[in-house]
Design a protein that fits this description.
This protein has helices at 7-13, 23-30, 45-56, 91-96, 120-126, 136-139, 142-154, 160-169, 178-190, 194-204, 206-210, 212-215, 230-246, 249-252, 256-263, 273-283, 288-291, 305-319, 324-336, 339-343, 351-361, 365-377, 384-407, 416-423, 429-443, 450-463, and strands at residues 18-21, 36-41, 59-64, 69-73, 80-85, 106-108, 128-129, 157-158, 266-268, 271-272, 293-294, 300-301. With 472 residues, it is α+β, with helices and mostly antiparallel strands. The strands form four sheets. A six-stranded mixed beta sheet has the order 3-4-5-2-1-6. Strand 3 and strand 4 (69-73) form a beta hairpin. The longest helix is centred in the C-terminal third of the chain and has 24 residues, at 384-407. It is globular and about 85 Å long. The N and C termini lie far apart (70 Å).
Length: 472
């Protein structure tokens, strides 16, 4: 048996009636690849799980003692199978407890006609999402969010009665475990049709509960340099980030292949850097509603929305139980997303200015440069076109610098211990300050050897009142 296909081993191992159920049946019917299988067995789930593990040389373990669910995982992690006892006494009763009709189809192991008491196969043909029963959302309010997620992942339409029932239950999402909420939200944000998924969250009332900070962006008008309110601007920035991820060459030219490789790197929470950048786009202006002001001259400002936004983004992702790595990453994107725009009027940039930009933005120096591109492209108010052109030209220059920085981060041209001996300094803040200055001077091309670095260090020490004797 292929390690990529556990079905033959499942069929051979099953000594009691058993069915494939849920998403695996749906995906097989749609011709979508899957490596995640749910099996309902009319009998002992543990027995079938252990038999499968033995036959497939895989690992089996209890996933839920209270529900009797067992999981079997291939040694190469090519697939996983969840084995669960049939609920309600029969496969039909089990299917009646499920969320949507396309997930309430059972396929007998070993072949045979579908068990389809709710017309799921018809809904698959019609590419329609329809609830199994009006109680579906009350039984598990997370299904409101799952409805939006499935619609954008599968590109299915929504049954009107199902939309109404989901909307009526959306407030109950507040009682759902944050980890479960984030798992669905994450899949919406990384979907090909992410913008549709987020729009459906709005329509279903889920955004107000799950991401009220996003809801508060609606109707927040911006300056004359913007053509959209904060909410619609944010959606457009997200669309730009998605397009940049798909076809980077269109925006970054020769850097396209390097950007593609970079965005494909894993980051946190099963997200690549490109997918995490989508969360940065979604939250980069999250503090604009709280910081909006109008000057006596009538100019709209959002002073401090970058710093406050970093704190708010951290709070949002902490509430959703995202990892600390993702929180810090998105906070950094939010904190630094304005930096490149401030530099446009300083072009051509000195090497020291480039260094300070990269050092300040590290470790998101590449990510935030791309976010700034999407942000500027989504800002098409007064005198937009020449401003966009200048911004993108500078962004491409800094992106090349950032890629080089990421590949081989600059270092001081002399070791700290060697410098301390040469200029008579103890290890401490002053030595660190001088090393940082030497690193910047080296990046700027002002010094190129250890000897020059030590001479510059002596000048710096003398400028602040003479050396402090190092311990001998």
């Amino acid at each position: 048996m292929s390690q990529r296909d556990p079905l033959a081993a499942l069929t051979a191992a099953a000594q009691e009636p058993a069915w494939l159920v849920g998403g695996v049946v749906r995906d097989r019917a749609l011709g979508r690849p899957t490596d995640d299988y749910d099996v309902a067995v009319q009998g002992d789930a543990r027995k079938l799980a252990r038999a499968l593990a033995q036959a497939a040389d895989a690992h089996a373990f209890a996933l839920s003692d209270s529900f009797g669910v067992w999981r079997v995982v291939a040694r190469d992690h090519a697939w996983q199978v969840d084995v669960l006892p049939v609920a309600g006494g029969s496969i039909e009763a089990d299917l009646a407890r499920r969320d949507f009709t396309i997930n309430a189809i059972a396929e007998p192991l070993g072949g045979g006609p579908y068990v389809d008491p709710f017309g799921g196969t018809s809904d698959l043909r019609e590419r329609r999402l329809r609830m199994v029963s009006p109680r579906a959302f009350a039984q598990d309010p997370l299904r409101t969010l799952r409805l939006a997620r499935l619609a954008c992942e599968l590109e299915f339409s929504l049954d009107a009665d199902t939309v109404a029932a989901a909307r009526a239950s959306s407030s109950a999402l507040s009682a759902v475990a944050p980890e479960r909420v984030f798992a669905e939200l994450r899949r919406i944000v990384v979907a090909e049709q992410a913008l549709r998924g987020l729009a459906l969250m709005d329509e279903l009332g889920a955004t107000d509960v799950v991401l009220p900070e996003i809801s508060r962006m609606r109707g927040v008008e911006q300056s004359v340099y913007h053509h959209l309110d904060v909410y619609e601007h944010t959606r457009l920035v997200l669309q730009g980030v998605i397009e940049l991820e798909r076809v980077p060459e269109r925006w970054v030219g020769q850097h396209g292949p390097a950007v593609s490789r970079f965005l494909a790197e894993p980051l946190a929470n099963e997200l690549t850097r490109g997918q995490a950048l989508r969360f940065g786009a979604l939250l980069h202006d999250v503090a604009k509603p709280a910081t909006r002001d109008v000057t006596p001259e009538g100019r709209v400002t959002f002073i401090g929305h970058d710093a406050m936004g970093a704190e708010t983004a951290t709070s949002v992702l902490a509430r959703l139980r995202a990892s600390e790595r993702l929180r810090e990453h998105v906070a950094a994107l939010t904190r630094h997303h304005l930096r490149l725009g401030f530099l446009v009027h300083e072009t051509p940039l000195t090497r020291r200015t480039i260094y300070r930009y990269l050092r300040a933005c590290e470790p998101v120096e590449i990510d935030v440069t791309m976010l700034s591109m999407a942000d500027r492209l989504a800002t098409r108010g007064k005198v937009a076109e020449p401003a966009i052109a200048r911004h993108l030209e500078l962004a491409r220059q800094l992106l090349g610098e950032a890629l080089a920085w990421h590949a081989a981060r600059p270092r001081p041209p002399v070791r700290g211990d060697e410098l301390a001996r040469a200029v008579g300094l103890r290890p401490g803040p002053e030595l660190g300050r001088i090393l940082a200055e030497l690193e910047e001077a080296s990046f700027a091309g002002e010094i190129s050897s250890t000897e020059q670095a030590i001479e510059r260090a002596r000048e710096l020490v003398g400028a602040v009142g003479g050396p402090v004797a190092a311990d001998q």
